[in-house]
Specification:
The complex is a heterodimer of chains A (about 170) and B (about 130). Chain A is an all-alpha fold and about 170 residues long. Chain A folds into two domains: about 30 residues; about 130 residues. Chain A contains five helices and no strands. Chain A is flat. Chain B is elongated. The chains are: A mainly alpha (about 170), B mainly alpha (about 130). The interface between A and B is large, with 62 and 47 residues.
Chain lengths: ~170, ~130
C-alpha cells in the first residue's frame, strides 16, 4: 500500500513537471525573437497604437449597430407580439440572449483594451520578455472579443430565422 | 493737539492695535480657505478620473484625443434613424416583411466594416515582425 502511494506521488509529480516545462517552452521567447522585439520596438509600439485606434472605431461601430438592433428592432417587435395577443417565447429568449451577449462584448472589450494599453506602455527595448508575455495575454483577450462577435452574429441569424417563421405563421 | 493726546483714554490705543491684528488674521484665513478649496478640487478631480479609468468607460469613450469618430461615421449615424418599428399596432406578414428588410440591411452594415474585426492576426508574431 505504501509503495503504491509513493509510486502514485512520483508519477503525478513527473506528469506535472513535464506539463509545466512544456507550457514554459511554448511561451518562452527565443533569442532571435527577443532581438527582433528590441530592434523593432518603436515600430511595433506604433503599430499597436494604430491598432488601438482601429479597434476603438470597430467597437463603436459594432456596438452602435448591436444597440440599434436591440432597441429599435428586437424590443419593439416583442412588445408588438404581446400587443397582438401572440406568443413567441423563442424571440423573447433571443432578445435576452442578445442583450447578454452584447454586455459580454462590452466587458470583454474593456478587458482587452486595458491589456493593450498596458502592452503599449511597456518599453520593449528593455523588457522584451515582459512585453511578449503581455502580448500573448492580450492576444487571448482579443480572441475572446472576436468570439463574442461570433456569438452575436449567430444570434442575429437565429433572430432572422425566427422572425421569418413568425411571418409564415401569420399567413 | 497735546491736550487731545493727554485726554485720550488708555483703551483708545488698544482699539487701534486690535484693528491691525484683525486684518492679517482675516487674510490668513482667506489664504487657508483658498488652499483648502483648491485641494478639494484636485482631490475630487483625481477621484473622478480614477473612477473613469477603473470602470473601463475610458476604453469605450471615443471622445478621447486621437479616438474621435471620422466625419463619414458621424454622417452615417445621422442617416440611420429613418426606419422606426412601432411597438404597438397590428402585426401582419407585410409589416414583418418590411421589418425583416430593414433588419437585414442593418446587419449587412456589420460586413461593410469588416468580416472579422477582432481577429488575432494583427497581434501575431509574423505581422509584428518577430
Amino acid at each position: 500500500m505504501k509503495t503504491k502511494v509513493i509510486i502514485f506521488v512520483v508519477l503525478t509529480f513527473t506528469t506535472l513537471s513535464t506539463a509545466s516545462v512544456a507550457y514554459a517552452v511554448d511561451n518562452e521567447l527565443t533569442e532571435k525573437q527577443s532581438a527582433s522585439i528590441v530592434n523593432y520596438c518603436n515600430t511595433v509600439r506604433q503599430d499597436l497604437k494604430n491598432l488601438q485606434r482601429t479597434d476603438a472605431r470597430a467597437r463603436t461601430y459594432f456596438g452602435a449597430i448591436y444597440e440599434t438592433i436591440l432597441s429599435k428592432y428586437l424590443k419593439p417587435l416583442n412588445l408588438r407580439i404581446v400587443d397582438n395577443d401572440l406568443s413567441n417565447a423563442t424571440l423573447l429568449k433571443l432578445q435576452s440572449d442578445f442583450a447578454e451577449a452584447r454586455t459580454d462584448f462590452s466587458e470583454d472589450y474593456i478587458k482587452y483594451s486595458k491589456s493593450l494599453e498596458e502592452l503599449v506602455s511597456i518599453d520593449c527595448r528593455f523588457e522584451p520578455d515582459l512585453f511578449y508575455k503581455k502580448l500573448v495575454s492580450t492576444r487571448e483577450k482579443r480572441a475572446t472579443v472576436a468570439y463574442d462577435i461570433k456569438v452575436l452574429n449567430g444570434l442575429l441569424t437565429s433572430i432572422i430565422k425566427s422572425t421569418e417563421q413568425l411571418k409564415e405563421s401569420l399567413k | 493737539m497735546n491736550l487731545e493726546a493727554a485726554t485720550r483714554t488708555p483703551t483708545e490705543p488698544q482699539k487701534a492695535d486690535k484693528s491691525q491684528v484683525v486684518a492679517p488674521k482675516g487674510g490668513r484665513n482667506l489664504l487657508l480657505l483658498g488652499i483648502i478649496a483648491t485641494s478639494i478640487a484636485f482631490l475630487t478631480t483625481f477621484i473622478s478620473l480614477k473612477i473613469y479609468h477603473d470602470s473601463g468607460d475610458i476604453y469605450l469613450d471615443r471622445s478621447r484625443p486621437g479616438f474621435l469618430p471620422e466625419k463619414e461615421e458621424v454622417e452615417k449615424d445621422e442617416d440611420s434613424d429613418s426606419f422606426v418599428f412601432s411597438d404597438s399596432g397590428l402585426l401582419t406578414p407585410e409589416v414583418l416583411e418590411e421589418y425583416l428588410g430593414n433588419l437585414k440591411q442593418e446587419i449587412n452594415h456589420l460586413d461593410d466594416f469588416s468580416s472579422n474585426p477582432f481577429s488575432t492576426l494583427p497581434l501575431s508574431d509574423s505581422i509584428l515582425g518577430f
